[in-house]
Amino acid sequence: xxxxxxxxxxxxxxxxxxxxxxxxxxxxxxxxxxxxxxxxxxxxxxxxxxxxxxxxxxxxxxxxxxxxxxxxxxxxxxxxxxxxxxxxxxxxxxx
Length: 95
Description:
Layout: E1 12-14, E2 17-19, E3 24-28, E4 39-48, E5 52-57, E6 62-66, E7 71-72, H1 79-84
Antiparallel strand pairs: 1-2, 3-4, 3-7, 4-5, 5-6
């Protein structure tokens, strides 16, 4: 009838929309938590009933934490990541 281990919910709410197992995501290892401020990509491997998820990062690291800090790569990017992209300088041509 069921397994001894709960499979968890079908989705949890992430920073930019619902997250499901197998989704490609990113999180930021912030300076405040001792990180380097960079964004790291990975795949969700498990969801938990308490709005947490487990990620296996592309570099092999594993993290379990609150889904509110997880950004889906298929959703809109974080505001600070969009601002981090260098703007193209304006060019004025003379004829």
